Amino acid sequence: MFLTMTDIYMPYGRLFRAARSGFLALFVALGGLYPVPAPAASAQQALNEWINSTATQIKEIERELRRATTRGIDQDRLSALLKQTNQIKSRAQSCVDTQQEQADSLSQDLETLGQPAKEQSAEVRRIRQRLLAQQQTVAGNLASCKLFLVGAQDLINQITQQQQALVTQQLLTRTPNLIHAMQEGLKTPGSWFETAHSFLDAQYKLLAGHLTTVSLTILGFLLLVFIPLGLVLRHMLQPKAPPVLAQEDRTVAFTVALRCSLLRRLPAMFAAVIIAVGLSVILPLRPTLPFPTDAAYAAVVYLFALTIVDLLLAPPPPATPYFPGPDKLWRRFSRRLKIFVTLCLILYLLFSTTLKDSLTDNQYFLLRAGIGTLLIANLISTTWLVRHFPWAILGRGARVILIGAFLLTLGAEYAGFRNLSAYVLGGLLGTLTALMLAILVTRLFTDLYDGMDEGRLLWQQRLRVWLGVHMQQNIPGLIWLRAATFIAIWVLFALWFMFVWNLSDPGFSLISTYLKQGFTVGTLQVVPVQLLWAVIAFAIISAATRLIKSRLLPEWLHRTRLDRGAREAVTTITGYIGIALAALIALSLAGFGLGKLALIAGALSVGIGFGLQNIVNNFVSGLILLFERPIRTGDWIVTGETEGHVKRISIRSTQIQTFDRADVIVPNSELISAKVTNWMLYDRQGRVRVPVGVAYGSDTQKVKEVLLEVAHNHPDVIKGSPLVPEPRVLFLNFGDSSLNFELRCFVREIDDRLSVLSDLNFAVDAAFRREGIEIPFPQRDIHVRNWPPGSPPPPAPDDAG
Fold it and tell me: pTM score > 0.70 for this model?
């Protein structure tokens, strides 16, 4: 296009072509400075090696998946293949992005060189050939990467289908039902005794073979030391009365409940930990964990779980339950949960330790059915008890559905679908537990952030002072931290939900794809990871800006020679710049390029043209006020009918506090366009005028002396200053009833003008009384021309008057 246009305008076309060729030759002569974004030889070699190895990996995965259809494959191997395929997909996507960027760059370079022409130099033709060769190489790389990307996605779909099929097969696998297991058990009633005897004998031999007198003595000594120590610590650290703040702040109440709950079981936890550590040292940990050691570990977890139940539902006195509700009801609820935790401990010891290997199939089925029945009964009872709590998140319908799910789980257990029963029960319990923990953590963080905004505790008050946050003002940036915490808690809950329902591999892959690559809403590409980083960056930069404004910048500016108004202007402008930078960085991290920002700016310009003129006018006026500083914070100004001190100059308006303590919001544009009286623009000194009248016949020189004496005796009146006049008295005029004088003097602080005027008036009145100078008041004589007949005549005037 360039050559065509220049050829039209001869002879300028030849001149342009010659100049372009000369510039290209100059770049080449200077050492090849012409930008050619070509991949290095080593990078291309590494890419070729990756392409070859990836092709081999994809073929191996395909062969293994084909063999799996006939020979079978386990879930762990499928998970490993899925992880490997996801890595291939991620690397292929990165390769596609990189190669596409290089292809676009090469295309732009070729467009810059223009169409081939005979007049072009050899160096330009050589560069074009090199660019074309590189473009062909990049196109081949891009095709290979796209092929790997499609192939990896196809393999992911196949692996996911096989995983789902394998899970379905495992869940629907049927073992002997309960009736069959009971019939088989009745045939060999003595097998229970034999199993128990053989298991206990094996454990006795294990302990006898490893426990020595020395190890038993050391273990007993540690128990004799730490159990009394736990009792002493519980007695010493147990609070005698609940703190007063526990009634006002839930975070404090939770802390007190945690302290009391831990101290309650501190001796038992010391004993369990010592036994667990001692058995871990004495007994071998491989090839399998011995049952005594495993049971000691389970005991530690069991005591910790009981402590959590006490903490949340029924903490020991003087602590109170964290959630609202009747104390008696909380005790019942905690007992149900403790029974549930105990049954879970029994299930673990029976079916997750070496004890399971000692059981026969029928014994395993019967024990599982019995403990499962008790567990389901406890869960149904606990679920039905929840209806008495006003805060219950499960309504009546939800409780009925949940109880029905528990009953169906028990029915599947009885019918022999034990994998399905364990899957559903584990999913339900994991979901409910995670939901309760998510609600608890959300509430704790909400109370913590509310306390920081309100300054309930001493450390929160100190934090607010350190950040420079005033009373009745929220901590800036904390709302973003609230949002990030809320999102993190419920994202973790969603991930846990997928894990307990065995959706981790395909689900995590899908979530990872959406989080990293995003999704499209209309024409907008939304990438959650970028949005999260944008929110975090905006919160951090906003908080840092607030800290700089309130703490660091005032200290630095105080050491300069700037006046107070200039310092405040710099502080305010710094805050605006910080927020603008935070917004730009957040938008950049969120994926909004400069082109999109230009579109937003264009939309804003249209909005300004239609209805935002006043806002923009006030914004620009605010900037003028900050830079020109005709008024500053703390100045006493008069604008229109508003008079008071400037309390705050913001981006849109100025807050003026009147002498009645009323806050008046004045748009900045009015302060720029209207007449404004500033009593403190260049200095804080001002003049006070005291008008006074004396009776006719008074000694005017005496009046002048008295007024000057009154002015000189007041401490706030300026005397002997070369910058302002001395106090003076003016004889203004002869009034109707008085001789009018005026005392004029200057005061150091114009803020004190009214109080100084009041003091001078009091002093003038006292001095006039002392000197016998009369202050007259107006008198009027009334003459009636036509007096009504029959009315008594008016009294004669008093001669003395």
Answer: no
